[in-house]
Amino acid sequence: MTVDNGVNVQALLEAREVLKGAPEAAQFVWRASSKWDNGVHSTTKVEKFFGLGQEQSHKSETVFAADHPEVFAAEDNGITPIEYLLVGLAGCLTAGVASVAQNRGIQLRSVEATVEGEHDIRGILGADSDVRNGFNGIKVVFNVDADATKEEIEALVAQSQKRSAVFDALTNPTDVTVEVA
Amino acid sequence: MTVDNGVNVQALLEAREVLKGAPEAAQFVWRASSKWDNGVHSTTKVEKFFGLGQEQSHKSETVFAADHPEVFAAEDNGITPIEYLLVGLAGCLTAGVASVAQNRGIQLRSVEATVEGEHDIRGILGADSDVRNGFNGIKVVFNVDADATKEEIEALVAQSQKRSAVFDALTNPTDVTVEVA
Fold first, then answer.
1. Low-confidence residues of chain A, pLDDT below 70?
2. How far is Cα of residue A154 from the mean position of the Cα atoms in its chain?
3. Phi first, then psi: what are they for B138, rounded to 5°?
4. Hey, what's the torsion of the CAs at A72, A78, A80, A81, to 10 degrees?
5. CA–CA gap between residue B102 and residue B6 (Å, rounded)
6. Which residues contact A177 (CB under 8 A, 6 or more apart)?
7. Which chain A residues are closer than 8 Å to B128 by Cβ?
8. CB contact under 8 A, B31 and A178
9. What is the Cα B85 distance to its own chain's centre?
10. Cα-atom radius of gyration of chain B, to the nearest Å?
11. pLDDT at A125
């Protein structure tokens, strides 16, 4: 039986070899641009990025709303900004599971994940300076149905985590500079 | 002139005082649930969360697609997972600017931000073990039109950063556990 999870692993392995000899082509820049609407409601658009030495574009622009929920005395016109981190984490780890499964010849039938981020909001409210602003911890639980043993599935998830851009971005510090034009 | 940026600062200040004496109510849990579609394409839904001691819900469920772009040999059915981190950062810092401006009596006319995340993809491809998987750095540039001096606007943005959940989550490590059910 041919394993097909829809991931072109051959292309990725070739890209790895090409980029080993062309590190400048591996330098990507991802971009988002946002506009304030009113209150804590804003709209962010994602379309263009840079990579492989030139400007690139998604097939289309995607528009995202961010707001705070009504329990924060806001209008809930979109999800809370910090929830976007959970969306990114779920997507990244799931993509990794599919890619690693393809590379290891494991046919996936279904992959589901639930992500929970614990957040003590006393930090952002300035109610307690010992409480951090961000998550106190994040827990991801995968349910994977595949032609594989439990151990093989656990190894898939572990390898996905090891190669995940978003997992790294959340578990290790990134330098973020914020300027006024 | 009454300053109105649409942020109910009074409610937030009251919440701060209430939560100082009721830390258990300040414990929020944000949630996302994802399903693999095919390849590196997945769909993530956000609706419910926990806070103020009980189950809460956004007004409606929001659905997000994540995929990789065509230059990664994928189908570009949605933005790349790591781009969701930039969406969250833009939304969080913008909400902060509006909130701090309201608290300081500064009327905003417009707030725009561009966010760029530098990403050396040799990390995720496994082409160079010295390259991290996540962003090498993130740069945010704000354009703010407000009844305020440049210094006051810079102070708004600095205070937003200081209180930002997403800024903290990206610049400091978070404990993330990943399990198979």
1. 1
2. 20
3. -130, 140
4. -140
5. 8
6. B137, B138, B139, B140
7. 20, 23
8. no
9. 7
10. 19
11. 94
Residue B179's Cβ-count burial label (10 Å; 0-12, 13-18, 19+) is exposed
- What's the farthest any 2 CA atoms get from each other in chain A? 59
A-facing residues of B in 47-66 (CB < 8 A) are 49, 51-52, 56, 58-59, 62, 64, 66
Q: What is the 3-state secondary structure (H, E, C) of B109-169?
A: EEEEEEEEEEEECHHHHCCCCCCCCCCCEEEEEEEEEECCCHHHHHHHHHHHHHCCHHHHH
Question: pLDDT, tens digit, for every residue of A33-80?
Answer: 999 999 999 999 999 999 999 999 999 999 999 999 999 999 999 999
Cβ separation B16–A113 shorter than 8 A: no
> A137-146 and B176-180 as β-strands: parallel, antiparallel, unpaired?
parallel
Nearest CA in chain A to B140: A178
Reading the block at residue B161, the tokens are 């950063």
Q: How far is CA A20 from CA A17, B39, B60, in A?
A: 5, 24, 46
